[in-house]
Amino acid sequence: MQAAATLFQELSGYLKPDDVAQLESAYQFSERAHQGQFRVSGEPYISHPLAVANILAKWHLDSQALTAALLHDVMEDTAVSKADISKHFGKPVAELVDGVSKLDKIEFQTHEDAQAENFRKMLLAMARDVRVMLIKLADRLHNMRTLEGLAQDKRRRIARETLEIYAPIANRLGLNSIYQELEDLSFRYLYPRRYQVLSKAVRAARGNRREVVGKIREAIQRRLADAGVEATVTGREKNLYSIYSKMHDKHLSFANVHDIYGVRVIVKDVATCYLALGTLHGLYKPIPGKFKDYIAIAKANGYQSLHTTLFGPFSMPIEVQIRTLDMHKIAEAGVASHWLYKSSDASLSELQKKTHRWLQSLIEMQSESGDAVEFLEHLKVDLFPDEVYVFTPKGRIMTLPRGATAVDFAYAVHTDIGNRCVAVKINDELMPLRTELRNGDRIEIITAAHAKPNPTWLNYVVTGKARSHIRHFLRTMRFQESVQLGERLLNQALAAMQTNLAEIGEGPWEKMLKETAAKSSTDILADIGLGKRLAVVVARQLLARGLDDGEAVELRPSGPVVIRGSEGMAVQLAKCCRPIPGDPIIGMITKGHGMIVHTHDCPALAKMRLDPDKILDIEWSPDTKKVFDVNIKIMVANQRGVLAKVAAEIAENGSNIENVAMDPQDGSHYTTMHFTLEVMNRTHLARILRSLRRVPEVMRIARVKG
Ligand code: MN
Q: Is 148 a catalytic residue?
């Protein structure tokens, strides 16, 4: 077979004869195993593992990985077992094949939960041995190259999966050429019409602009030579999909995408990179704001270069990348450059280490979150990086994704700093924690010993680390609160049966735990607090287990559950009616979200279909030491300074304004203002309303529920 000959010629170029011999036997083994199987194209199946091995040989991957590549489908499609492979080719190869086979089993589903779970498994496999992922990517690349024969819906499914999952991973691993090819192939099968139109446009433009680009390249080459800078200057083209994304994201027409052509300058060392940059800025003017120094601060996948965009002749902007040869190697092959250039180059092994650290952090994150969808969310941030660089007070550089806030920074420094942060100084100025960080900011986090993460942080943090730590903290806290609420609810239900928790004792609990999936009575209490179990049902079950045969449970009405409004996340005050102490209230148990408290007359509540088992009789505790939000609307005469008068009256009565909004001016004499106020209870609110009515401009005033 021709492909086999090519492969072994390539392999002999860099592997020892012994290794090549093992690969020969792996090839024969695989061919025998796949005997009689064919691809959709009609070719014998062995052509596929051969092609995959060929791709990996281009990166000079080691013989274990190549052996595994040749065998990557045998466990899946033939009778060969992992033990067989281990016996013939050793345990490391068997592990690699097993890893790839596990990834193969993953059928990405549209259902987000399943997809997330699969994605997670895939990354974990990669975290154990990045070679598994390299084999899988080569496998996917060959499958994408031979997608033509498949049915259309299958093509689209595979293309979408490649675009959403495999291409970003290839990018994160710095496998640049694979990444671009995967993107372009996906684009072609996912949007065949757009692909055709765009590739035609690019071909035409190439014809028109070729001459100009050639002239610019020559001019650059000449100017560098004149300045005594030794450099290799080449032209480069943006791949189709990135042109398409740019048009799509920035709503540009093709004619307005100018940087489809660029120039790449490769020089001998870092100092020369900057020298070349200066020389080129002398030749053509740089476009302000387009210069990026990825040498001083490398991208997460190890990429380094100087980027600048120049005003070329014929008003053609031209993007220039300047880098050293070593940087170029990493830019082309990413993690694979470790195998491709087996040099002692420190930057290559540093890249390996960085990749390894990234993968380790994924493992850490996944064990902490435990929730697949959440994990996927974290990961997407990591896979689509667009970064900002900021400084610690000691001058250390931290890299964060674009959009990161001070809270993200705090968690990036240390989990404890994140959990305890209360304020931030950005460039010596006190700023809100939600402030989005900008390049070059110097960030100092201020912490307090007893501070705790706030649920609202989740609205603006962007890093996986911050998000997962905040959620973890809240979950733990919420669990404790749910246990407390569950205990109160259960006691109330037991009271109706003329007993209480203390009287029940340990016996019935033990019996009940044996019969259910719950691990402890605490778990059951938390379930009650979260609304996953009904207190009445648990009470009956406990009681039944404490009774002798034939005895019956006698019910009598019990008093309401008392709430203080400060229970935390297990008891939430409904946002529609915003109940305050003094209001008649009812509790609604919602599955997984604990209890929501509504006012009796809440209009939203009236619209819901209510399950009597989930409605609770509750009342306010007499000592609620807390302020509560309440909504009111005030109709006022449209006069200058009326808002100030109203606000002063509110403050006078010891209340804070949480929020205020006004209806748009429609030229009439009256306007309506909407306030959210902080009050202690109904009496407090009544006092405020009374004094507001005394303001002459106030026409009408009402509390708003729903
Ligand atoms: Mn395969």
A: no
